[in-house]
Design goal:
The complex is a heterotrimer of chains A (about 250), B (about 450) and C (about 190).
Chain A: E1 3-6, H1 10-15, H2 17-29, E2 33-35, H3 45-52, H4 57-67, E3 72-75, H5 78-87, H6 94-103, E4 104-106, H7 107-114, E5 127-130, H8 134-139, H9 155-160, E6 167-168, H10 184-187, H11 189-205, E7 210-213, H12 216-228, E8 234-237, H13 238-242
Parallel strand pairs in A: 1-2, 1-3, 3-4, 5-6, 5-7, 7-8
Helix pairs in contact in A: 11-12
Chain B: H1 9-17, H2 20-42, H3 47-63, H4 65-78, E1 82-86, H5 89-102, E2 107-110, H6 114-118, H7 121-127, E3 131-134, H8 137-144, H9 161-172, H10 181-198, E4 201-204, E5 208-210, E6 215-220, H11 224-229, E7 234-240, E8 244-245, H12 250-262, E9 270-274, E10 282-288, H13 292-296, H14 312-316, H15 318-323, H16 334-344, H17 361-365, H18 372-385, H19 391-404, H20 407-423, H21 449-456
Parallel strand pairs in B: 1-10, 2-3, 2-4, 4-7, 5-8, 7-10
Antiparallel strand pairs in B: 5-6, 6-9
Chain C: H1 3-14, H2 34-45, E1 49-52, H3 55-65, E2 72-74, E3 84-85, E4 100-104, E5 107-108, E6 115-118, H4 119-122, H5 127-130, E7 133-139, H6 147-154, E8 161-165, E9 170-171, E10 179-180, E11 187-193
Parallel strand pairs in C: 1-11, 2-3, 2-4, 4-7, 7-11
Antiparallel strand pairs in C: 5-6, 6-8, 9-10
The chains are: A alpha/beta (about 250), B alpha/beta (about 450), C alpha/beta (about 190).
């Protein structure tokens, strides 16, 4: 049986435990043995993206300590997984860091590429807008990127298609960034909010009841705008949709 | 010339965004151009291979630049073109001035050249009694408004037609309130035509310079470069060192990529190949460094020199579209500007690599496959190491690193944060919290996932 | 040390290890129905394009399309009975008032609607830019599919000046509204001779 280490990003742990629970359940349902190392903290991305990569050594060491022993490491966050994939290094155990970079997966790609899931016992009878997080899209290549002249595909859409009753809405701009961007969301607050508002408008005018994504950072940002503007549109992590039963 | 020195991108963007209707219009206009680009790209099945080839050709250029410069210079001379070398912007301007002074010329017409914008050539010459008129319509509009261009291909994309009409009323005597683009363009046509016919000197930029043959190509839609050049006694071309391409046939690759990337056109209306002077005409070409050799020496950033100045990164960038080119306080703005500018003045432009969410769309549209978003990330590390990050940010980051590298500290901090959000939200939900200005904070759940897990699941583990 | 030496020295010192040029021979267009392809593209650019059997039929079309009371110039000896032949030696400024210029292109490119001209067929370099209306004659068998074939034809090029011209001059600088006729000709008409 596959031995999977559950990687729950810092802010998901603190603010969105339901998404983490849904991820745990989905993985268990898919037949793998899941372990959650309780001493994990963060991947170090917030520091690194702000130019302080050199301060993320502590996070890196902790990550390696917690996750070396697994066949795969799976997390419900494209941006955190991407960060580990690209930036995990160790002064003392680079071999281990390299191994981890090769076996860390975001939840959606783990289900489609490793588990090779073909059906889901899930039901979510609502209109859903899929938000492609940039890290998931252009970093992890979870779907085809609209800029390229290349054949279309989408791993999250493939999974959403398995959910009973779910209707995916069509957006005006398929994969424009939501504007979260880490510390950008406060350092460039005006632009960040404008970008978020524009995404929210695209989803609501095209009929979305829910906005979903592989990245809760995007959703947290969009949710902040939705709530402030007293919108009926809700955000939900894709794990919770894929794990939803009637 | 007003280049805002003290305000950073965030402040300038904030001011731009206040007028939401204008931002929506600006954003929509540029997105439309991105869509046109996409349509054109889909017509070329070999598009991604063309990008790869262009990228490799430019890598070959910057890694053999010394040899190509010598070859190019040799061929230019054989063609009868006078070659100059300029180390700095100042030296470039001095050379142009000297060329004009030698012929006792005090009026010049100029077609689009971002390099000369970078060098502030117009001001330099005006201070010495030489009048320079920008003949590209967008650049002409910016010139009469005493404002730099906001976009390298669409200089006044941020201006409404009513504003342009007002400028024309003030400077060209058109009827007040006239804002029809065709009518305004006709007025400019007439006015600029007279300029072309009476100016003895013309200056152009260079889109591509061919080392193999000693010729250079200038691409326009308006025909202004040619109108100036073919009526001039003295023709000057200003060129950044990196504009070279090795062989004539490579123009096939680059010209197929350039206009489609820039505006979605299959080719610019005019792609003019200048090789030898007209009988009785003098032709000059100025090779300009102005920081390019320094960028060439930066291992992580030298690929930014592959840029062919198409502007597609600006059109796709959501930050650019919603903040406007002038908020980048640099001649070249947008994503490519943000990786070129810190090399020119790291202190002044330290904010630019942070004016991005690192979404990566720019790298995908770049016809020469510059890894723009990777370079933005890398510039951030350099800028912080060089000490240009705000002190408060450094302190905040160190605290974050301390908290996140210890499981115990992390648990305490997380619990504290959630407790505050649950019980005393105004501590966080207040005007001092920039997040809170226009967004609600996430709710603080009673238990973190880890706490729930330890209570319920850990026995099963 | 001169500036030239300083720059060259800096380049040599800073340039990275050499990488090879790619093979670009696989880029080529397909050769079928180029006339139709060219006409379709040129139409989208905003220029009329006519098929004609001979240069004489072009004469008739020109008489129909343009104001014959204005100054019309040409490089084609076949048209010199009707229109003024361009002189290569007079001051280019003297062509300021030409209404129409009728010239012949070396060839044209189907993928982008552009014609290739050198000063040899322009009469004078300024001619195709200064006229109010440009008319270009192109032979059908000379049409190539893409720019790759175009540059094969051009070779290193023994000209002092050459250019692709892909339609009437244009600008969209004012609120992205397309205006045909910026500083170059207001219109461009292409006559394809079979």
């Amino acid at each position: 049986m596959m031995n999977v280490g559950l990687f729950i990003p810092c802010y998901v742990n603190q603010f969105y435990p339901n998404a983490a629970k849904a991820t745990l359940e989905l993985l268990q349902k898919s037949g793998v043995h899941v372990t959650y190392p309780v001493n994990q903290t963060c991947c170090g991305q917030p520091m690194a993206n702000s130019g302080f990569e050199y301060l993320s050594k502590g996070c890196n060491d902790l990550f390696i300590e917690n996750f070396s022993s697994f066949d795969y490491i799976v997390g419900p966050s494209a941006s955190c997984v991407l960060h580990i994939k690209e930036h995990l290094h160790s002064d003392t155990d680079e071999e281990q860091a390299t191994k981890i970079r090769a076996k860390v997966y975001e939840l959606v790609e783990f289900l489609t590429d490793i588990i090779k899931i073909e059906k889901l016992d899930a039901s979510f009878p609502h209109k859903v807008g899929l938000h492609h997080s940039c890290h998931g899209l252009r970093g992890l290549y979870l779907s085809q990127m609209s800029e390229l002249n290349a054949p279309p595909f989408s791993k999250p859409q493939y999974l959403l298609n398995m959910v009973k009753g779910l209707e995916q809405i069509k957006l005006d701009r398929l994969d424009e960034c939501c504007g979260f961007g880490g510390t950008f969301c406060v350092a460039e607050e005006a632009v960040s909010v404008k970008m978020g508002k524009d995404r929210v408008t695209d989803h609501s005018k095209n009929g979305a009841e829910y906005i979903t994504s592989s990245d809760l950072s995007c959703l947290m940002h969009l949710e902040g705008i939705l709530h402030r503007n007293k919108s009926n549109v809700k955000v939900i992590h894709i794990a919770e949709i894929l794990n939803a039963t009637t | 010339m007003s280049q805002t020195k003290t305000k950073d991108h965030a402040a300038l963007a904030g001011a731009f965004i206040k007028d939401e209707e204008r931002v929506n219009w600006h954003d929509g206009a540029l997105w439309y151009i991105r869509e046109k680009r996409d349509l054109a790209v889909k017509q070329i099945p070999e598009w991604e291979q063309l990008r790869e080839a262009a990228s490799m050709i430019k890598s070959n250029v910057i890694s053999n630049l010394h040899q190509y410069l010598l070859q190019f210079e040799d061929n230019l001379k054989k063609n009868g073109i006078i070659v100059h070398w300029a180390d700095s912007a100042e030296e470039h301007n001095e050379i142009v001035y000297a060329i004009l002074k030698a012929k006792e010329i005090n009026q010049m017409v100029k077609s689009k050249s971002m390099l000369t914008e970078e060098c502030h050539l117009n001001e330099y010459l005006e201070e010495r009694g030489i009048e320079v008129i920008n003949s590209d319509l967008g650049e002409y509009i910016q010139q009469i408004d005493n404002e730099p261009p906001s976009h390298i291909v669409l200089p006044c994309i941020h201006k409404r037609k009513e504003e342009i009409g007002e400028l024309f009323h003030e400077h060209l005597g058109t009827e007040k309130g006239l804002s029809d683009p065709t009518l305004l363009t006709r007025v400019a046509r007439k006015h600029l035509r007279n300029i072309f016919l009476t100016r003895r000197a013309a200056l152009t930029g260079v889109n591509f310079a061919v080392a193999e043959t000693g010729e250079y190509v200038v691409c326009t839609n308006e025909g202004n470069a040619d109108m100036g050049a073919h009526l001039s006694e003295v023709q000057i071309a200003s060129m950044g060192l990196e504009k070279l391409i090795p062989q004539k046939k490579h123009l096939g690759v680059f010209l197929r990529l350039l206009a489609r990337s820039a505006t979605g056109q299959p080719i610019t209306i005019y792609s003019s190949h200048y090789k030898k002077p007209r009988k009785g005409q003098e032709m000059h070409l100025i090779l300009v460094d102005a920081g390019r050799t320094r960028q060439l020496g930066r291992k992580d950033f030298r690929d930014s020199l592959k840029c062919i100045k198409c502007g597609s990164c600006m059109n796709t960038c959501p930050v650019y579209r919603k903040s406007g080119g002038l908020s980048y306080h640099n001649t070249i703005s947008g994503p490519i500007g943000a990786i070129l500018a810190p090399n020119l003045d790291m202190k002044r432009h330290a904010d630019l690599p942070f004016a991005s969410t690192l979404c990566g769309s720019c790298s995908n549209v770049c016809p020469v496959k510059i890894n723009i978003h990777d370079q933005l990330y890398k510039w951030r590390q350099v800028i912080v190491k060089e000490g240009y990050a705000a002190n408060t940010k450094t302190l905040g980051m160190k605290t974050m690193a301390w908290t996140l590298s210890s499981p115990a500290n992390f648990r305490k901090a997380g619990k504290a944060g959630r407790w505050f959000l649950q019980n005393i939200p105004f501590v966080v939900n207040n005007p001092f919290n920039p997040w809170y200005r226009q967004r609600d904070m996430p709710e603080g759940p009673k238990e973190s996932f880890a706490e729930w897990f330890v209570k319920n699941e850990i026995k099963k583990q | 040390m001169t500036t030239r030496e300083k720059i060259l020295e800096a380049v040599l010192k800073n340039q990275p290890e050499a990488t090879a040029l790619p093979d670009t021979s696989m880029f080529k267009g397909t050769g079928n129905d180029l006339v139709q392809k060219y006409m379709d593209i040129f139409k989208t650019i905003g220029g009329p394009c006519f098929l004609a059997d001979t240069i004489d039929s072009v004469k008739t079309l020109i008489n129909e399309k343009f104001d014959l009371s204005k100054r019309i110039v040409t490089t084609l000896p076949e048209l010199s009975d009707r229109f003024e032949l361009i002189s290569g030696t007079v001051d280019p400024h003297s062509y300021n008032d030409i209404e129409v210029a009728i010239i012949k292109a070396h060839f044209s490119v189907a993928e982008n609607g552009a014609v290739w001209l050198t000063e040899e067929v322009m009469g004078q370099r300024i001619i195709p830019y200064i006229c109010q209306h440009l008319a270009v004659i192109v032979y059908a068998e000379s049409i190539v599919p893409t720019l790759h074939e175009a540059y094969e034809k051009i070779g290193t090029g023994d000209y002092g000046f050459g250019g692709f011209i892909g339609g009437p001059s244009k600008t969209a600088d004012i609120e992205q509204a397309l205006v045909l006729g910026a500083h170059g000709p207001l219109t461009m008409t292409v006559f394809i001779i079979n």
